[in-house]
Amino acid sequence: MIRSLAGRIGWSVAVLAALVFAVTPLIWMVLTSVKSNREITQDGSLLPEALTIANYVSLFSGRQFGAYLTNSIIVTTLSVALALALGTMAAYVLARFRLWAGMQRYVGFGLLMVRLLPPIVIIVPIFLAAQQLGLLNTQLSLIVVYATFNVTIVVWMMESFFREIPVDLEEAAMVDGDTRFTAFRRIVLPLAAPGLVATGIFAVITTYNEFLFALVLTSTPAAETMPIGAATLIGRINVDWGAMSAAGVIGALPIVVFSIFVQKHLVRGLTMGAVK
Amino acid sequence: MTPSIARHTLRGSGLDRVLPYLMLGPALFLVLGVIVYPLIDGLRSSTGFFRFGRLIRSVGLDNYRQAFNDPAFIEALVTTARFVVLAVTIETVLGLGLALLCAREVRFIRRLRATLILPMIVTPVVVGIVFRLIYASDVGLLASFAHAFGVDPPQILSTGSGAFWGLVFLDVWEWTPLLFLILLAGIQSMPVEPFEAARVDGAGAWRTFVDHTLPLLRPTILVAVTLRAIEALTTFDQVYVLTRGGPGTSTQLISIYGYQTFFQFQQTGYAAAMLFIVALVVLIGAGFAVGLMRRRGR
Hints:
The complex is a heterodimer. In chain A, about 75% of the residues lie in helices and about 0% in strands. By secondary structure, chain A is an all-alpha fold. Chain A starts with a helix and ends with a helix. Chain B has a single domain (about 60-295), classed as MetI-like (MetI-like fold, Orthogonal Bundle), CATH 1.10.3720.10. Chain B is about 75% helix and about 5% strand. Chain B has 14 helices and two strands, in the order ααββαααααααααααα.
């Protein structure tokens, strides 16, 4: 409880400072993206004098941002959906069954270590494998890789959710004639829905934002995703600041819109994704 | 472990007996094929000499020896260590302060928290773009402010130490929200009794923080710091966009150097060895983190 007036003012000032710190860099990017390139380079103004959408138009007319967006949506949706399907089943097994030779413990521990391993460690062999299989520059290669990393996330997060659901409920369903799998699908999954939502949110954000594998595995707009599209605008001889900031806005927009859409579950999803 | 009656029913019908293996199989197959096999394959590559992407011959541990005799590798390790220590320390202090500020349930607090975590949601590549638009010496936000106040614009991306600190600042902006979130969850799950007792005893805010909040929060802080440090060790996207490791080698983190060794210099075996050294460091850290979490949770 904040009692004193001074305390209340201090609190407000601190919170306001944090908000300004968090938001200003993003606002600057948005402002730059609606300025003309002449205004950006010559006037050095803080606020735009005349608004223009030319920077955005150029992204979609000459620069394939429509393709990047489509690729990102396809790759993210399919890999997260696949991971949720396979991962929840695996997590359920680890939470409920005693496997041969107590294997479930080693599998659980192994998956956790794999989850903490930085992906960059395997880019060399993944690239070589994709090359040999003729999967370079395909959406499929990204879907498979992302689905796998997402599976480790899903298992990790869902296992604890399943543990919290009382076994009696499945027992009762099975006494009533359900098979084990039907009991899982009809009784356990709906009860674990909040966990599925949190897990899905976390997986969608990390997958959409992924850059390294997309950079290594794709090379043309046929398979390149949004982060690649945004990053490849940089590094030409002349930096086109207007287009670059518009690319940044468009690149981040889908995931920010998604986050606003799932706002109610966002904080929980991100916290659990980090520490479970 | 939940003691489950379910284990008995498991022995019942034929299908239910193999069901757990059928349900675990596909996920395990993916992980073995896409992560574990490449790991082993990469370990094999790290002991080989390659030319034009083809394995020519095995060279034993030469690639690992080369790493420790390579000044650029050592320098990248040192740069990475400095970056991780500085960024994670600042993030922890700021994140803890922010979590304490936002632990109260007041109006709009949910919306406030959701806004504060925006930086960690924005695509890392875009974060790199955002900070180029801030640091750019001609058109950046800082330059525009300097312009407005009639002072010389700061040179950030063109000097070594400027770029390094610019990168640290970027990371602080992007990942303080993560520390904030984890610590906030920790604060919200603290027991209330010690704090009520402290209030009855008339303890001041600072004493309460040092005597109760910090000790209770210590395990959470340790987990959060370890997890963040593990991820920061292989920071790549933002550097790729912001500086590509430059100017010179001032922001050449180990991930950037490893990437360039493979894709630009085509030294497949050496790159694999280098990344495995990083993996080893991370696995030690990860084992530490898992131990902490096991002790805390479950």
